[in-house]
């Protein structure tokens, strides 16, 4: 994983300490990809072989090709997610083809919540969602370890309260 700052992200010449997402998120997403596209390939292969003949069952290779392509894309997307806690704000960067960087000032945070759906809980993951006054700047950090998500929530809440009290 690359360390350092995207263009313009440093404050006063200092590089933020970037943190990547844990590998559990990549494992979860790849398992879901294999399950869904594997079942699709199996269903397409069986249906086409029964209804149109065994030659047509070769179209079941299309979902398998999508699986291989998706496997690579999921890895690239996972590696692109990073976040950094700076003195006055939180940076979140993501994206491979279209890079997106979100800067959330601590004083603008209204709510920081930790969520974990059933699949995330099964894999021991949680997401941190930041809500601000402007809906366009709401940000999410997915796939964190629950302890790290709670630590981040508590720290961001504390910093947000301290910054908003100073306004």
Write a concise keyword list for the protein shown above.
167 residues; alpha+beta; four-stranded antiparallel beta sheet; three-stranded antiparallel beta sheet; 4 helices; 7 strands; 23% strand; elongated; disordered N terminus
How do the strands and helices of this protein lay out in sequence?
Layout: E1 18-20, H1 23-51, H2 61-80, E2 82-85, E3 89-94, E4 100-105, E5 109-115, H3 118-122, E6 126-132, E7 139-144, H4 146-165
Antiparallel strand pairs: 1-2, 2-3, 3-4, 5-6, 6-7
Describe this structure in words.
Helix content is 44%, strand content 23%. The chain is built from 4 helices and 7 strands; from the N terminus they run βααββββαββα. The chain starts with 17 loop residues before the first strand and ends with a helix.
Which range best describes the helical content: under 10%, 10-25%, 25-40%, 40-55%, 55-70% or over 70%?
Answer: 40-55%
Mean pLDDT: 85
Number of separate helices: 4
Supply the helix-strand structural class: alpha+beta
Query: Which stretches are low in confidence, meaning pLDDT under 50 for 5 or more residues running?
Result: 1-11
State which percent range the strand residues make up.
15-25%
Distance between the termini: 37 Å
In one word, what is the shape?
A: elongated
| Computed Rg | 21 Å
The largest β sheet comes out as: 4 strands, antiparallel
Number of extended strands: 7
SSE pattern:
EHHEEEEHEEH
* Spatial arrangement of strands, main beta sheet: 1-2-3-4
């Amino acid at each position: 994983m690359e360390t350092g700052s995207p263009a313009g992200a440093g404050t006063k010449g200092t590089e933020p300490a970037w943190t990547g997402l844990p590998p559990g998120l990549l494992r979860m997403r790849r398992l879901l990809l294999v399950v869904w596209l594997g079942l699709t390939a199996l269903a397409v292969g069986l249906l086409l072989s029964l209804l149109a003949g065994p030659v047509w069952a070769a179209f079941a290779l299309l979902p398998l090709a999508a699986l291989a392509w998706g496997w690579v894309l999921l890895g690239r997307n996972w590696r692109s997610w990073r976040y950094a806690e700076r003195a006055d704000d939180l940076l979140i960067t993501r994206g491979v083809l279209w890079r997106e960087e979100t800067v959330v000032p601590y004083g603008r945070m209204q709510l920081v919540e930790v969520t974990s759906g059933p699949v995330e809980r099964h894999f021991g993951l949680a997401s941190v969602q930041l809500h601000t006054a402007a809906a366009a700047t709401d940000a999410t950090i997915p796939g964190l370890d629950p302890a790290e998500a709670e630590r981040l929530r508590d720290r961001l809440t504390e910093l947000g309260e301290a910054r908003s009290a100073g306004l």
